[in-house]
Amino acid sequence: MTETETTNHVPAPATSPRDASVTAPATSPDGLDFESWTCPVPLRSTPTVVMGHGGGGAMSAELVEHLFLPAYGSAAAHELGDSAVLTVGDGTRLAFSTDSFVVRPMFFPGGSIGDLAVNGTVNDLAMSGATPLFMSSAFILQEGTALTELGRIAQDMGAAARAAGVRLVTGDTKVVDSGSGDGVYVNTSGIGVIPAGVDIGPRRAVPGDAVLISGDIGVHGVAVMSCRDGLDFGTTVESDTAPLHGLVAAMLVTGTDVHVLRDPTRGGVAASLNEIATASGVGVELIERDLPVPDTVRDACSLLGLDPLQVANEGKLIAIVPGDRSDEVLAALQAHPLGVGARRIGTCVPDHPGMVVARTGLGGSRVVPLPVGEQLPRIC
């Protein structure tokens, strides 16, 4: 392996992280032991964690694939989705998910870290088709945080849990020294039940499937950015944070074999579709003019040099369904209050497998890459 190769972050062509090891000298000139490394490791030229590792893009994937999975070995799950699907003794299938929330600021237009934490975990469960039932809530608090702020966050969590029909059944609280944290961090885990006959997963997309989105994209990310560092976009943009399991249930009622569901949070629509394309081995072709980007989001992204497809959402879902059932599913989405703005934005194709391409209004095309890191850190 050359020095140049050590800074190349493209994953090696291996069937699994544990097959990705390469032959290398026992030690490098600077004394590093390569024997126990899997190649490539995340940012080998940067020996510390950086913000991009938490962004939901390529750097996050590298951290999981080349650090965590090899370390966990046989103890790791084989499927890596928004939630794990577990079968209990009587054949009941459970969805289990966990997530952590470090959004800054803790309160933003349309929501707070409290309702975001509940809705985020509810939505991870819903993307497996599950009905969410129970959740945990764990807090890491910085010494000196105002109890009035903590109380407001707890109130928001309670209200969101009641609205979603889930119970907060266990939790934990830790406090770190002043200056060691940043206000309040929240971790939530959730359990839900998957109905019989529902099989939803990123590997199920096939050529001919329709790609649907439930509404406007990029709203949450811009809402959070609008109250950071005095940024003013000329109008108030509110987060779209919302529980999506009712919207999923509305699609399943149609009897359609829904192939894939994802809520495009960190990394936005771009990250979600790239992960689906890679997992299923299909290409995804988007029609750029059909993407529902509100003018406020488009203007804010233009000002900040951001791609709306890479901006986080917290109340939208991507659905990949058989093309011949797409009109029926789309009608079910549009009949639900959270899916009024739903539309078809693209198609799964056999060409360019593992790649997402957008057809522009001028008749050309552009590749929509998996984000490397995170355009907007601390967004959820």
Strand and helix map with partners:
Blueprint: H1 58-72, E1 84-87, E2 93-101, E3 107-108, E4 111-112, H2 113-126, E5 131-142, H3 147-164, E6 167-176, E7 184-194, E8 210-213, H4 219-225, H5 245-253, E9 260-262, H6 268-280, E10 283-287, H7 295-304, E11 318-321, H8 326-334, E12 343-349, E13 356-359, E14 365-367
Parallel strand pairs: 5-6, 10-13
Antiparallel strand pairs: 1-2, 2-7, 3-4, 5-7, 8-11, 8-12, 9-11, 10-12, 13-14
Task: Explain what this protein looks like in three dimensions.
This protein is α+β, with helices and mostly antiparallel strands. It folds into three domains: 5-75, no CATH class; 84-194, PurM-like, N-terminal domain (60s Ribosomal Protein L30, Chain: A); 202-367, Phosphoribosyl-aminoimidazole Synthetase, Chain A, domain 2, CATH 3.90.650. Helices cover 25% and strands 21% of the residues. It contains eight helices and 14 strands. The chain has a seven-stranded mixed beta sheet. Strands 1-2-7-5-6 form a five-stranded mixed beta sheet, with helices on one face. Helix 2 (113-126) runs parallel beside helix 3 (147-164) and helix 5 packs across helix 8 (326-334). Mean pLDDT is 86; it is low at 1-44.
